[in-house]
């Protein structure tokens, strides 16, 4: 049994080792074992290896991925997630009633991981909670940026690669700060605290 410290003794204790870590170092910090077990048990996902936990300041969002329709995109997203690529990135473009976009390391929609993906357009419709890849004009220009639909968007069907669906926590996506202009660019946007593959937690 350890002795309790008096007030005068606690003043001399050193700060926690995580106190002065740089942002890029804190991104790699894991969660407690108790919290990890709670997450695994609380979210009834079909396949933990193909499910993501996206943490925002509002709450946790669960995304179940679709490797049967977009295998290369799912594999690449998991690779980036496991590298910690998305941790700390912003929801830089958010349009009420349409979608919330993230995954740009520059925070303005012009960046990516540097690896373009060949399109895997599929028959999965863009509806509320759909997670799909953002891209430029060229079909095979998707990289790391993705968007989550707020509503049904049938005009996007077959034009963007759908790779996942929000199955829990969509109410927290609804809370993300919205853009003020028609393009949806957000001033002081909310960020992705972290994304994890649920089987890794």
Describe the structure.
This protein is an alpha+beta fold and 201 residues long. It has a single domain, classed as Beta Barrel (Cyclophilin). Helix content is 18%, strand content 18%. The protein contains 5 helices and 8 strands; from the N terminus they run H-H-H-E-E-H-E-E-E-E-E-H-E. The protein has helices at 7-10, 23-26, 33-42, 71-83, 170-174, and strands at residues 51-55, 60-65, 93-95, 99-102, 130-133, 146-149, 162-168, 194-197. Strands 3-4-6-5-7-2-1-8 form an 8-stranded antiparallel sheet. A hairpin with a 3-residue loop joins strand 3 (93-95) and strand 4. The longest helix is centred in the middle third of the chain and has 13 residues, at 71-83. It is globular. It starts with 6 loop residues before the first helix and ends with a strand.
Structure summarized in a few sentences:
It is built from 5 helices and 8 strands; from the N terminus they run αααββαβββββαβ.
CATH architecture: Beta Barrel
Radius of gyration: 19 Å
Largest sheet: 8 strands, antiparallel
Sequence of strands across the biggest β-sheet: 3-4-6-5-7-2-1-8
Low-confidence stretches: 1-20, 23-28
The strand count comes to 8
CATH superfamily: Cyclophilin-like
Percent in helix: 10-25%
- The mean pLDDT is 87
**CATH fold assignment:** Cyclophilin
Structural class: alpha+beta
Order of helices and strands: HHHEEHEEEEEHE
What CATH first level would be assigned?
A: Mainly Beta
Q: In percent, how much strand structure appears in the residues?
A: 15-25%
Q: What is the rounded distance between the termini?
A: 31 Å
Overall geometry comes to globular
